[in-house]
């Protein structure tokens, strides 16, 4: 594992870690609202590291990245776009596959609007949100988020803790192992409530970006997701008619935590195909350490 400090938008310092082979194709993991790179532990400690260069950042305001409290650091799309561009460019990732969970759907679309797809091999949207407005509350964004957002953005510490505990519990359909659940609460609580609130202080409509996408797209979504509703995944698929869907039964908002074996295998296959499509190289899938174990993707 290597640790990097990357200079992002407006000079803000970003904490970035990487695993795997430095000369292998890159996968860039982008976490969600109030999370950090630790949520991808089941990916960077898996056999994916034998085939890919795995990179995960702490978004601005999260984890070990710089976290100014002023709202303006989180409401400007260009800053988010430049953060991702900085990671790609300063670490020489080439054309990585982006894996974006939840709020990261907004950030990936910020990047695409500002920088295009010239340095993107493919995108795996994982329980991803791409629309943030009043009309989407209750139709695209569900009670697993809405029921806890007031407490999670409050400065009252007891209420804040209770809201985060309930939010983390609601992110999965099945109960997480106690150690994983406790650690997830810790990394969520590392984000100040003011920053959680600032992340929600803008309206977002990414439909134009998604309609124009011309890179491979995989939409991974739990059928029991109450945080970002399956309707959001269907909306994304309708806008990206060439996208592939992977629906996870009996799974909530975090397929990569709830079913990491399937998730990692599907990501390996998708990334391999995206790299082949991008570079025109021979497929490396034959002989891969993760090949041949998952059910096929489906669009139902």
TrEMBL record:
Keywords: Hydrolase. It comes from the Bacteria. GO terms for cellular component: membrane. SUPFAM superfamilies: alpha/beta-Hydrolases (SSF53474). Residues 27-265 form the AB hydrolase-1 domain. Pfam families: Abhydrolase_6. One of its GO terms (molecular function) is hydrolase activity. PANTHER family: AB HYDROLASE SUPERFAMILY PROTEIN YCLE, MONOACYLGLYCEROL LIPASE. This is Hydrolase.
């Amino acid at each position: 594992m290597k640790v990097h400090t990357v200079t992002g938008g407006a000079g803000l310092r970003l904490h970035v870690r990487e695993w795997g082979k430095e000369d292998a194709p890159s996968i860039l993991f982008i976490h969600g609202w109030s999370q950090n790179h630790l949520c991808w532990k089941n990916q960077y400690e898996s056999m994916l590291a034998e085939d890919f260069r795995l990179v995960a950042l702490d978004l601005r305001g999260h984890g070990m990245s710089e976290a100014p409290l002023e709202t303006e650091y989180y409401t400007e799309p260009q800053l988010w776009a430049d953060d991702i561009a900085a990671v790609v460019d300063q670490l020489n990732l080439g054309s990585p596959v982006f894996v974006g969970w939840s709020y990261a759907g907004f950030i990936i679309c910020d990047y695409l609007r500002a920088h295009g797809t010239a340095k993107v091999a493919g995108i795996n949207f994982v329980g991803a949100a791409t629309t943030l407005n009043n009309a989407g509350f209750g139709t695209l964004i569900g009670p697993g988020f809405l029921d806890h957002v007031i407490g999670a953005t409050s400065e009252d510490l007891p209420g804040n803790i209770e809201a985060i505990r309930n939010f983390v519990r609601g992110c999965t359909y099945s109960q997480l192992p106690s150690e994983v659940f406790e650690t997830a609460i810790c990394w969520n609580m590392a984000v100040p409530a003011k920053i959680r609130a600032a992340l929600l202080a803008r309206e977002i409509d990414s439909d134009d970006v998604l309609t124009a996408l011309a890179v491979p797209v995989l939409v991974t979504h739990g059928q029991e997701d109450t945080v970002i509703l399956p309707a959001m995944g269907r909306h994304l698929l309708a806008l990206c008619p060439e996208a592939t869907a992977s629906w996870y039964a009996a799974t909530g908002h975090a397929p990569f935590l709830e079913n990491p074996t399937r998730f990692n295998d599907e990501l390996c296959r998708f990334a391999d195909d995206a790299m082949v499509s991008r570079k025109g190289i021979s497929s490396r899938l034959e002989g891969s350490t993760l090949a041949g174990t998952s059910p096929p993707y489906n669009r139902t």
